[in-house]
Amino acid sequence: MAKKSRKTLSIAFEKEAIGQFLLHLYDLQTEKPETDWSISKQEVRTAFLEFLNLPENVVIRKRMPKIPAKEIGVLLRRTAYLIDKPKGCEFFCIRIKKFLQFKEINELHQEFEKKLVMYNAENQKLHRLSTKSNFHITTGLPQFLPTPEILSLKKGNYPDEALCVFSPKFADYLNGGGIFTPENMFDAMKMLLRIEDMNILHRYHLLIQRNVKLAQSSDRYIFTLSGKSRHLGCANDDLLSRFNRVLVIPECKETNLLPKREYLDFLMSGSLDFKSTSIAIETTFLGRIEMVEGKQVTLVMDGNIKLEPKPRYLIIFYPARVTLRYQYNALEIYKKDQEVLNRFLFPEPSNAPTLSEICLSFYNKNIAANPEQKQAVKNIVSISKNKHLSSPFVIFGPPGTGKTSMMVETILQLLLHEPDAKILVTAGPNCACDEIALRICNALALGKEPRSQILARVYCFSQEQRRENMNKLLLEYSNMYDWHFYPDLEVLQSYRVVVCTLSAVGKLAMGSLKHFTHVFHDEAGACSLSESLVGLVSALGEKSQLIIAGDHKQLGAIVKSDRAEQLGLGVSLMERLLDRKCYDVVVDGDNEQYERSIQTRLCRNFRSHPAIVKLFSHLYYEDKLLAMAPKEQTNWAENWKVLKDKDFPILFQSVRGKEEVDEDTGSLANWKEVLQVMRYVDDLLENGLGDGRKLEESDIGIISPYRNQYMTIQEELNVARKFQIETGSAEIYRGKEKAVIIASFVRSRTKSIGFLKNPKRLNVILSRAKSLLILIGNDETLSQQGDYEFIIKECQRRGNFLPDPTAFL
C-alpha cells in the first residue's frame, strides 16, 4: 500500500510566475472580467510567449519548460487558477476570485516596497545589509567529541548508578529531581548532551554502507541505500541531508577485515581522514550529499572517482553535528559568564521589580483592548525605561492567544521609547522568525517615509535553497537579497532589530558579537534548555532584558535519544523558569494571582470556534481559555449537513482499519483512513459547508502523526490535482491554522497507541482548526488513553460520532 512520495508539483515559483503572467494578460483586456474569466487558448498561449520574452522576465524564461506555450494549461491547472472544462474546449476559464486576490496582494506588496525601500543618489538600497565587509570568525568552534568513557556507559543504557559515579555533579542533578542549579548545571547538561551525541553517532554507525555500486551521471555519483532505516528509529532523510560529508572507500580485502568497532571509533574521532589502527587503507574519496530521495542518494565528490567495471565501495556518512557543537559551546560560554547569566537562568523573587505606570499609544488597537496583553507591554517597556535588572519576562501564550502580536507590539514600543535599544529576536524555527520580521516590516510600512537600518533578518546558509519561495520584502531586509552572505557584525549590530534563529546566533557567536539591550526568545517552550542557551549566552549582558514567549503545554524539543529525554534534556527553559518560586501562580476562586511584573498568562483565544476552544482548554489549560474569535471567522460549519449538533463543530469518524508498517522507514499508515480522509476532502470541496459556504483547497489542512500516512495522503491529493491542501505532522503544523482540520490517527487494533499518548501532540492537533475539526480513527484503540476517550464520549454525547460505515459489512 505504501507509495513513494512525490513532491507537490505546485511550487511557490510557479504560483508567482503564473500570477504575474495573469496580471500581464489582465492588462491586455479591453473589458476587464468580473466573473470567471473565459479566454481563447490561442490568445493565452500567444500572450504567454510575449510575457516570457519581456526583458524583466529573463529568470522566469530560463526556468520554464522548453515549449512554454503548450505548457500554460498545465501550469494554470497546477497553480489552481484553471476551472476544468470539457475536453476539446477552445477556451481557458480562469478563477477570477483567486486572480483578484493575487492582484490585491501584489499591489499591497508594491505599496509596501515604496514605503520600506530607501534609495540613495546612486540608486542603492539603503536598508540593505552591506556586503563590503563580511563576517569574521574570531573564535573557532571546537569538535566537542564524546569520550570513550561515554561509550562504555552506553552498554547498560546509561544506568543511574554509573552516571552518578562518573559525575558527582550529575548525581546532584539526578538526586535533586532533575533540577539544574548554578552548581551542577555545567556538568549535568554536558552529560545529557553527550548521551544525545552518542545516540546520533550510533545511528550513523548503523547507516554505514557496504559493497555499494556507484553509478555516475555527469559529475555526480548515485547509489541506493541498503538496509532498512527503521532500525535507525527514523527515516533516512531525517539523518541525511545535503550538508552531510561522505567518505567513499573502494572495497578490498583490507576493508572486509575491519572490525565493526573501528568504524564507530572513526566516527567518534571526528577526522575526515580514515586511519585504521589495524590495517592500512590507501585510497579514500571525500565528498558531500547533494540530495536524498527515498533510498536514492546523490553525491558530489571533491575529486573524480574513476569507476572500474565491477567496483564496490564502502560509504561512511559523517554526522552533521554543528547544532550540537553550538550547544556544547554555549555551555562553555555559560561557565565563563555564569555570574551574569545566572540572573536569567535562576531568577529569585527579589528580582521582581516595582513598576511605575506609563501611558502608551498602541500601534495595534486590538492589544489596547486586551487587558493581559496591554498590561504586559506596559510592564516590559516600564522595566526598560527604569533600567531594572529584572528576572526574565515570561509570556505564556496558549494557542491563538496572540503572543506574536504582543511581541511585535512590544518591540515597536521599545523602538519608539528607547532610542538606544538594540533588540535581538530569536527562535528555533525559521517560520517563527519570519512571521515576527514580516509583521515588523508591515508596521514600518505605515510610516510616512522609508527608514534605514531598522531591521535585519539573518539566515543560515542552509536556507539559501528555499530563497525563491520566500517573501520578497523579507528578502530585501535579509542577508539573502542577492546571494547568501554572513554580514560583518559591526554593520549588523548597527541595526536596531536583528531577527535570526538560535542556530544563526550560534554562528554569530563565533565572531565578536556584542550584547543586546533586549533579547526576545519566541517559541521558548518548543526547544530544550541547551538549544535556548545557544541563542542567549552570547547576546545577554549585565544590563540586558530577556523576554521569552511560548507554550510548554504543546510539543517541545525533538530529542533523538530516549534515555536523554528521560533524564530531562528535552525540558525547555520556559518550563524550568515557570517551576521557580518567583513565577508561582496562586488560585483564588476564579482569579489567578501572580507577579505580573515578570510574567503574563494570555487567556483570550482569537482563532477557534468556542466549542473547539472549550475542548482543548478543558484538557490542557484548566478551563481558563476564553473564546474571542468573531463568529464570521468560526461559524462556517453551522449549516454542515453531517453535524447533528451545529454548536459543536467537532466530528469523530470511527474507522477500524488496519495499520501497516513501511518497510523502509518503519512509519505507519492506514489505507482505510486514507480513503476516508479523501471522501471528506471531496465532499467539502464539492458541496461546501451548506448555506452557500464554499471552501477553497487552502482552507483545509490534514494532520497525521505518522509520516507515512500524511505522505500517502499527499500522494492521493496530488493524483487528484488538489495541490493546495497542506498535509503534515503535528510538528509541521505548530503555529499554523486552517478553517478546517482533518486528523488521521492511524493506530488500530493494537494494545498500545505509541507516541499518540503524548498529550502535547494531541494539544497541537486539536488547536489548529478555526471552524471545523474532523477526527478520524479507531475509537476502541484510541480510547485506551484518557484524553481520546473524553473526546470520543463528548462527540457521542453531542451526536457528532459516526461509526465505521464498513464495520457491519
TrEMBL record:
Domain DNA2/NAM7 helicase-like C-terminal: 571-779
Gene3D superfamilies: P-loop containing nucleotide triphosphate hydrolases (3.40.50.300)
GO CC aspect terms: cytosol; P granule
One example of a Gene Ontology biological process annotation: regulatory ncRNA-mediated post-transcriptional gene silencing
Domain DNA2/NAM7 helicase helicase: start-end pairs: 370-476, 490-561
UniProt xrefs under Pfam families: AAA_11, AAA_12
Database matches in InterPro entries: DNA2/NAM7-like, DNA2/NAM7-like_C, DNA2/NAM7_AAA_11, MOV-10/SDE3_DEXXQ/H-box, P-loop_NTPase, SF1_C_Upf1
SUPFAM superfamilies named in the record: P-loop containing nucleoside triphosphate hydrolases
Entry keyword annotation includes NAD: no
Superkingdom, taxonomy of origin: Eukaryota
Keyword Transferase: no
PANTHER family the record matches: DNA2/NAM7 HELICASE FAMILY (PTHR10887), RNA HELICASE MOV10L1 (PTHR10887:SF419)
Protein name in the entry: (Mediterranean fruit fly) hypothetical protein
Lineage: Eukaryota, Metazoa, Ecdysozoa, Arthropoda, Hexapoda
